[in-house]
Design brief:
8 strands; alpha+beta; 4 helices
Length: about 130
């Protein structure tokens, strides 16, 4: 759906096409569907404000997917949104092979998701190569 990037809390709209296009590890279709459904529920039924609903939906998304993402870091920047996870939990245990990564959700001028970048290790970004 054009003009809607994944969801629009003000119009109670979820863009299933965008959700289907999320094919990353952190930014996954399953995680996004859970997040958006929970967020809309908390706004429409529980009457929470948008920020509180988004925060609580991110916690639910993290619980289900195992990735530890921060609700505050998802900022639109020149056609992409960074999504990072410093830690990943699988079956209740820390999974170091999936921890410390960043993805970018790329979208076009109509706010349609077109691609999710492959994982980039956070330490490659944060630490200079020697």
């Amino acid at each position: 759906m054009s003009e809607v990037f994944v969801d629009n809390v003000n119009t109670a709209t979820i863009d299933i096409g965008d959700i289907k296009a999320l094919n990353g590890r952190i930014a996954s279709s399953a995680g996004a569907l859970i997040h958006e459904t929970e967020e809309q529920y908390r706004i429409q039924v529980k009457k929470l404000d948008n920020v509180t609903a988004h925060k609580k939906a991110t916690i639910i998304e993290n619980t289900v997917t195992g990735y530890n993402t921060d609700y505050r870091t998802r900022l639109i920047n020149d056609g992409n949104i960074p999504v990072q996870s410093e830690k990943c939990y699988y079956g209740g245990s820390l999974d170091l092979s999936k921890s410390g990564y960043l993805e970018y959700i790329n979208f076009d001028s109509n706010n349609n998701i077109i691609y999710v970048t492959p994982w980039i290790p956070l330490k490659r970004i944060l630490l200079p190569e020697r």
